[in-house]
């Protein structure tokens, strides 16, 4: 290998200066307001420091001034792409503290709503990830389908983004008459379209080039940083709270046939209908995180079909919301649920009044984002959006 | 042997209390012993608490003395650790009880050892607890505010926190 001895050549041609580059706060590729400070040497990034807190809306403090049911609309605004899943997490922890059990039918209703929102959320995650990498069509395709899901939600609860539908005690209302038939019709129409998304992104040569072997996260690293959800499973860790979580939560999915989407011996469950893992991809890279999400969409469709069946045949009530000023027993409870972006935990402490003493939200993206510096070290500047996008973060959840 | 007995046998006085009847049973650890206990919980083959789910700070204090007496607790700050295991699929709650102010001098933050050496994720969680609840984590590599601006005054989730009247020309109240 040739070496350069002439000092002038080094000065003018080779030596680059370290530079601090601000990415954001309002970068089009982030769902929310995130500022990344990159320390770069030419095109190479040596350090990334995420600055958060721009959206800090004091959700925890507000929770200490409202009753649990009044707090539901605030949970919507945490992960605003999966409001239903946030409602569910909070509802479950309040029910855990109250030791309140739900009728069978209400549980199936919750499964339908939560999985449908997971589907909508993953669609945005997929579409926006395409946008991060400079392709626009997947974004339009994903939003086309998401609109139809929002139509269904609108019919059920009157809102398209901030639902406040699932509440402690069940839901605010039963599903409207004929709603499940509409959902079935949507699923029938949607399922073949998944192949389109794979053609657009998963097998796209440019997409593979941009994501395979980029931002590789080992399983140990993912666990050490507390990463959860598709980010954790993309690294090959077999952990999904719908199967491994607390009984109060797994009870909802009891009897459903589904498998955790994680790579086992080079294969994903049910992936025979979909493109195989490309040779360039390494377990734990951006491509795998994306692919796990894509397969979870298929899995959610599957769970939804089962849930419709069970909901229609289940006897009993759909559950009633608890009283607005219901007194809470003295004590504390913590519960984590599997939200689309990972494990969303709520911690509630009560001193015996109807307003919680302390409300704490543990968000998945908060932990997922904290690994950025480790993942982006020595990558190219162009890879930073690819890596951050693959974590599928929503800032509302991180800043709360 | 239950987990509590196992910990008591190994760490003796550093296990300072427990409540196994609570909705989420918890074990209380002395502030100095938290790192050793966590290291053991993470590495013991039959426990393997490899994931730190959450660290929360809870402030127990009320301005009204009568209500305070009725509530039935002494003024203190709790740091609560929620652990889980991706291998064994179980969870555990640890608590550290701290005085509200170190040596009862108002403004001096209570201290507890940082567990960043055990789980990397504790880094941001401890920064958040420091920022909002005002607990100093000794041994943290980079302890500074994370959600509030650097020059923010006070700890918003403390019960005696008062919203500033003004911040850089922005009206607060």
UniProtKB/TrEMBL annotation, chain A:
InterPro entries hit by this protein: NADH_Q_OxRdtase_suD (IPR001135), NDH1_su_D/H (IPR022885), NiFe-Hase_large (IPR029014)
Catalytic activity: a quinone + NADH + 5 H(+)(in) = a quinol + NAD(+) + 4 H(+)(out)
UniProt function note: NDH-1 shuttles electrons from NADH, via FMN and iron-sulfur (Fe-S) centers, to quinones in the respiratory chain. The immediate electron acceptor for the enzyme in this species is believed to be ubiquinone. Couples the redox reaction to proton translocation (for every two electrons transferred, four hydrogen ions are translocated across the cytoplasmic membrane), and thus conserves the redox energy in a proton gradient.
Pfam families listed in its UniProt record: Complex1_49kDa (PF00346)
NCBIfam families, per the entry: PRK06075.1 (NF004739)
Entry's EC annotation: 7.1.1.-
Keyword annotations from UniProtKB, A to Z: Cell membrane, Membrane, NAD, Oxidoreductase, Quinone, Translocase, Transport, Ubiquinone
Cited SUPFAM superfamilies: HydB/Nqo4-like
Keyword Manganese: no
Enzyme category, top tier: translocase
GO CC aspect terms: plasma membrane
UniProt lineage: Bacteria, Pseudomonadati, Planctomycetota, Planctomycetia, Pirellulales
Family membership: Belongs to the complex I 49 kDa subunit family.
Membrane topology, record value: Peripheral membrane protein
Protein name as annotated: NADH-quinone oxidoreductase subunit D
GO-annotated molecular function: NAD binding; NADH dehydrogenase (quinone) (non-electrogenic) activity; quinone binding
Main subcellular localisation: membrane
Compartments, as annotated in UniProt: Cell membrane
Record note on quaternary structure: NDH-1 is composed of 14 different subunits. Subunits NuoB, C, D, E, F, and G constitute the peripheral sector of the complex.
Organism in which the protein naturally occurs: Lignipirellula cremea
Residue stretches making up the NADH-quinone oxidoreductase subunit D domain: 132-313, 326-400
TrEMBL record, chain B:
Reaction it catalyzes: a quinone + NADH + 5 H(+)(in) = a quinol + NAD(+) + 4 H(+)(out)
Family annotation (Pfam families): Complex1_30kDa (PF00329)
Places the protein is found: Cell membrane
Domain NADH:ubiquinone oxidoreductase 30kDa subunit as annotated: residue spans: 27-163
UniProt GO MF annotations: NADH dehydrogenase (quinone) (non-electrogenic) activity; NADH dehydrogenase (ubiquinone) activity; quinone binding
InterPro entries, per database record: NADH_DH_suC (IPR010218), NADH_quin_OxRdtase_su_C/D-like (IPR037232), NADH_UbQ_OxRdtase_30kDa_su (IPR001268)
SUPFAM superfamilies: Nqo5-like
Lineage top rank: taxon: Bacteria
Recorded family membership: Belongs to the complex I 30 kDa subunit family.
PANTHER family found in the cross-reference section: NADH DEHYDROGENASE [UBIQUINONE] IRON-SULFUR PROTEIN 3, MITOCHONDRIAL (PTHR10884:SF14), NADH DEHYDROGENASE UBIQUINONE IRON-SULFUR PROTEIN 3 (PTHR10884)
Name used for this protein in its record: NADH-quinone oxidoreductase subunit C
Organism: Lignipirellula cremea
